[in-house]
Amino acid sequence: MSTWLWILVVVVAVAVAVVVTAIIVRRRDARKVTFAMDALEDGELNFHFKENTRLNRALNRIRGIFERRSAVDETNSWSKLFRVMTHEIMNTVAPIASLSDALTQADDMDMKAGLETISASSKDLIRFVESYRNLSQVAPPMRQAVMVDEMMHRVLSLNMPKIAEQGASLSYQANTPDLLIYADEGQLMQVFNNLIKNAVQAGATVIRITADLNRDDQTVIRVTNNGKAIPLRQIEDIFLPFYTTKPNGTGIGLSLSRQIMLRHNGDLRLEQSDSNLTVFAAIFK
To answer: Hey, which bits of 184-274 come out as E strands?
Structure first.
């Protein structure tokens, strides 16, 4: 065999080795990217790639960004929660302390009125504590196969009488038929009952529920109403525990609903709220 032929064989062998190596590396990198994206999507930030390659450094940097952002979001959430809890408790306890001091100098009539006020304030505080307990002790979902159509028809049956009393309409449409989810039906019905109740309290006359699959084959159930829009300044806080703009509201409805969805590995989002429509989307991932 001539020298040139040997050189050609060696060159071809090297080229094949380079191509094969590139394919192997590309597939391995693709698996890393897929793993990293899945982990980030699920909120799992404990991965770290050790090899000092450009891709590994980039993935580790992205993880660090998500980690810092998660820490900031958690800090902000706790800060808002403490602010609301402090405000609620102080509003209830302050009158009790003030009246207790005043009653030491009061006559019988003032004493009775003061005690009635203390009683009312104490009951408000008890309701607040009960709300906190309900929010903090959500039971793990007892999952089973649930037909979305059947569940939503039960939701409609429960809410129709009250909706009719308000002169409003409530409807359900399955844009994708025969949707099946694996979930705790009782907890999910609580979510949709709450969204319907909020729509009625916002003055809605038309409430529509739709079920569909999105581009990622995720089941999405939307509750749409034509009630009063949520003010822009309040949108950031509507899922915050104990945040409410209603005189007798507990502020746990939307927060509890979102927590239930998160426990189902899903999410509850406000997609739209303007002069035309308010749309909440329950997404099952």
So the answer is: 206-213, 219-225, 266-273
Q: The tokens of 251 are what?
A: 């502020």
Name which of 68-72, 168-172, 237-241 the model is least confident about: 68-72
Long-range contacts of 224-229 (CB under 8 A, 24+ apart): 224/277, 224/278, 224/279, 225/199, 225/277, 225/278, 226/276, 226/277, 226/278, 227/199, 227/200, 227/201, 227/202, 227/203, 227/278, 228/202, 228/203, 229/273, 229/274, 229/275, 229/278
Mean pLDDT of 8-24: 61
Q: Which two tokens stand for residue 145?
A: 């196969």
Contact 159, 170 (CB under 8 A): yes
Q: How many CA atoms lie within 13 A of 98 on its CB side?
A: 8
| Calpha distance 44→191 (Å, rounded) | 26
Q: Which residue has the tokens 């749409």?
A: 224
pLDDT in tens, 123-140: 666 555 565 555 555 678
Angle (nearest 5°) at CA 240 between 215 and 37: 35
Are the C-beta atoms of 268 and 191 separated by less than 8 Å?
Answer: yes
Q: Give pTM, 2 decimals.
A: 0.58
Structure tokens at 96: 């009790």
| Beta bridge partner(s), residue 170 | 207
Question: How many helices and strands (H and E) does the chain possess?
Answer: 7, 7
Interval 180-210: pLDDT, tens: 999 999 999 999 999 999 999 899 999 999 9
